[in-house]
Amino acid sequence: MSLDATSVSPVLRFAPTPNGALHLGHAYSALCNQRLADETRGRLLLRIEDLDRTRCKPAYEAAILDDLNWLGLRFDGSRRRQSEHAEDYAGALARLEARGLVYPCFCSRAEVARAAIGRDPDGAPLYAGRCRALPAVEKRARLARGDKAAWRLDIGRAIALASARIVWLEYGEGTAPEARAADPATWGDVVLRGRDLAASYHLAVTIDDALQGVTDVVRGRDLLAATSVHRLLQDLLGLPAPRYRHHRLVVDAGGDKLSKSRNSPSLAGLRAQGVTAADVRRALGFPGEGAPAIAVTLSRFLLS
Questions:
Q1: Dihedral sign from CA coordinates of 54, 57, 60, 64
Q2: pTM, whole model, 2 decimals?
Q3: Cα–Cα distance, 189 to 124 (Å, whole number)
Q4: pLDDT tens-place values along the chain, 304 residues long
Q5: 27, 77, 289, 297 — which has fewest CB within 10 A?
Q6: What is the rounded CA–CA span in Å between residue 152 and residue 150?
Q7: What is the DSSP string of 174-223?
Q8: In this structure, are residues 247 and 221 in contact, taking their beta carbons and an 8 Å threshold?
Q9: What's the total number of domains in the chain?
Q10: CA-to-CA distance for 169 and 82, rounded, in angstroms?
């Protein structure tokens, strides 16, 4: 399979999760996607990653759409909501199961943490593989009686069955690609479907990007390591490999990445202070007219 899946017109996507308000980091990522789409005469799609129905709310989605419209973002086609496509993820998981590459894990989060053999690239406990060794008859019996299970990828077997060397084309924020070697083993037996979710982030975005024909994935550097898992899944499922462009992150004055969990200032909050969309664009390094009117407000945030 060719690494360069972009013989057709480029297709990009911005994929927010409606579990809180957008901040400057989201704005930067969305604008990076828009700029590349404009430069390459490509298409920019909007995907709503709302698999977690407990935390994702329609009100947050409405607020996201309002923010993106305020920023002047333009999207092609209809929105794809992950919550409406559980069958796509189930089909992919079934294909992996048929090859003996996934298994049910009945361990609780506390049990996983207690037996952890290290940390994955996100800092989460690395699963020790306890349920991988369970006899098949026990797995079937526990599933039949309704025991809740997450489905994990047998990373060792998956790597053994994949191509000898899995790489991706990484552009960063430049124009010259670099071939990056994937290292999915650092994630251990990663979860592909949670106990109460149709799919994990790793499986869902891999399948979504393929079904939507995404040729260029533009996202933050915090997801660089996750690309190793996505490339492995693409290889195992025979899916095309997009080009990847992991951009800098917007950080606060202390050097911390902006996030919803840390209650970073939202775009809506900045608007309430009088910040305009043009202010945000120019502060983040995108074309606009005039200097930012609220320079002091935005100067607390940096790209790193």
A1: positive
A2: 0.91
A3: 12
A4: 333 444 579 999 999 999 999 999 999 999 999 999 999 999 999 999 999 989 999 999 999 999 999 999 999 999 999 999 999 999 999 999 999 999 999 999 999 999 999 999 999 999 999 999 999 999 999 999 999 999 999 999 999 999 989 999 999 999 999 999 999 999 999 999 999 999 999 999 999 999 999 999 999 999 999 999 999 999 999 999 999 999 999 988 778 788 777 778 899 999 999 999 999 999 899 976 444 444 445 656 566 6
A5: 289
A6: 6
A7: SSS-EEEE--GGGG-S-EEE-SSSS--HHHHHHHHHHHTT--EEEEEGGG
A8: yes
A9: 1
A10: 26
CATH number reported for the structural domain that contains residue 92 in this entry: 3.90.800.10
Alpha-carbon torsion (22, 28, 33, 34), positive or negative = positive
> Is residue 214 situated within a structural domain?
no
* Angle, in degrees to the nearest 10, between helices 58-71 and 24-40: 60
Residue whose entry in the numeric block shows the structure tokens 């709310």: 57
Q: What residue numbers bound the domain in which 136 lies?
A: 85-206+228-237
Q: Report yes or no on 10 lying in a domain.
A: no
Q: Burial, 139: exposed, middle or buried (Cβ in 10 Å; 0-12, 13-18, 19+)?
A: middle
Q: Where are the beta strands (DSSP E) in the chain?
A: 11-14, 43-48, 80-81, 102-105, 150-153, 167-170, 178-181, 191-193, 216-220, 243-247, 250-251, 302-303
11-14 vs 167-170, strand pairing mode: unpaired
In a domain, 58, yes or no: no
